[in-house]
Amino acid sequence: MSDTSTAPGYYQRHIFFCLNDRANGEDSCAHHNAQAGFDRCKSLVKAAGLSGPGQVRVNKAGCLDRCAGGPIAVVYPEGTWYTYVDTADIDEIVESHLKNGQVVERLVTPAELGR
Fold this sequence. Notes:
The protein has about 120 residues and is of the alpha+beta class. The chain has two helices and four strands, in the order βαβββα. It has helices spanning about 35-45, 85-100; strands at about 15-20, 55-60, 70-75, 80-85. The chain has a four-stranded mixed beta sheet, covered by helices on one side. A hairpin with a 3-residue loop joins strand 3 and strand 4 (about 80-85). About 30% of the residues are buried. The model has no long low-confidence stretch (mean pLDDT about 90).
């Protein structure tokens, strides 16, 4: 008998943080404390007991091509794109979306923002 708590997607939610640093001097998420946002999220998810199969995975990503909204993170399977500014924003994303499944509307990246 297989464990269905981790099937079919292995993780309930997956959040990717763009940590891209453009060497040519163009603005990028790395210039907006993206690493600190990633570190904060990973720490909070782990402390809350939310990490691991069937729960939440926090990952680094290269360019997600939404630089104009940076720093950027995206949560799947919902496909919700977030622009965050500080640790309070990360705290809210973890508590509301990653823990309770509620999108943080005030942090959703406007659909028209691309690179």
